[in-house]
Amino acid sequence: KQEVTQIPAALSVPEGENLVLNCSFTDSAIYNLQWFRQDPGKGLTSLLLIQSSQREQTSGRLNASLDKSSGRSTLYIAASQPGDSATYLCAVGEEYGNKLVFGAGTILRVKS
Amino acid sequence: ETGVTQTPRHLVMGMTNKKSLKCEQHLGHNAMYWYKQSAKKPLELMFVYSLEERVENNSVPSRFSPECPNSSHLFLHLHTLQPEDSALYLCASSLGLRVINEQFFGPGTRLTVL
């Protein structure tokens, strides 16, 4: 059974700092990996989608990498801003089963 | 806005009530999903519909009853719920069923069961 773990569970940083969020998964048979952002009490907003054949994706200040063989992904946020404060979720698309399996998330707080 | 709307946004109900959650997508997608998000736990997939047919039921108690009358609308009928069912219920849709298709999420319904 696929399990997705996100570390750390919570993170508090001063504005302007570069930071890394980690995601690991137990079964490397994945189609893709997706990073989402969730604001308190709100739905999920997709940030980056990495296909299993790709190594990384970039969007603005965000960069996500994927190492499928080791079961790891990182989300790098450059020059963090208070508006980046949210919960960040990692989800893997299972190759067999056609499901997204989510991690529990990392709660990020960027202090001004 | 993701093109997926959910109503109501907040719902408080007693254990003997019957209520329904509604989801509507304006994206022309063919697959729709219900997820449950409890505090400090990962999102749990509850139901999957493809072209109005249920294709997945993840061992969800029968007090949750989904309905998909057409590809744009999805309901979750609630009956005789328990306090542990209090959670954020998220609806999502995708162009097709396979995970290569990106899922778009609604804002969720915050459910409190007293």
Please provide a written account of the structure.
The complex is a heterodimer of chains A (112) and B (114). In chain A, a hairpin with a 5-residue loop joins strand 4 and strand 5 (44-51). Chain A contains no helices and 11 strands. In chain A, strands 2, 4, 5, 9, 10 and 11 form a 6-stranded mixed β-sheet that branches. A 5-stranded antiparallel β-sheet of chain A has the order 1-3-8-7-6, with no helix packed on it. The radius of gyration of chain A is 13 Å and the shape is globular. Chain A has strands at residues 4-7, 10-14, 19-25, 30-38, 44-51, 56-59, 62-67, 72-77, 86-94, 100-102, 106-111. Chain A is mainly β and 112 residues long. Chain B is mostly beta strands and 114 residues long. Chain B contains no helices and 11 strands. In chain B, the strands form 2 sheets. In chain B, strands 2, 4, 5, 6, 9, 10 and 11 form a 7-stranded mixed β-sheet that branches. A 4-stranded antiparallel β-sheet of chain B has the order 1-3-8-7, with no helix packed on it. The mean pLDDT of chain B is 92. Chains A and B meet through strand 4, strand 5, strand 9 and strand 10 of A and strand 9 and strand 10 of B.
How far apart the termini of chain B lie comes to 31 Å
Structural class of chain A: mainly beta
Classification by helices and strands of chain B: mainly beta
Multimeric state: heterodimer
The count of helical stretches of chain B stands at 0
Mean pLDDT of chain B equals 92
Helical coverage of chain B, percent range: under 10%
The biggest beta sheet of chain A reads: 6 strands, mixed
Question: Could you describe the largest sheet of chain B, including whether it forms a barrel?
Answer: 7 strands, mixed
- Kindly state the number of beta strands of chain A: 11
Q: Secondary-structure element sequence of chain B?
A: EEEEEEEEEEE
Most extensive protein-chain contact, per-chain counts: A-B, 25 and 24 residues
User: What letter string, H or E per element, gives the SSE order of chain A?
Assistant: EEEEEEEEEEE
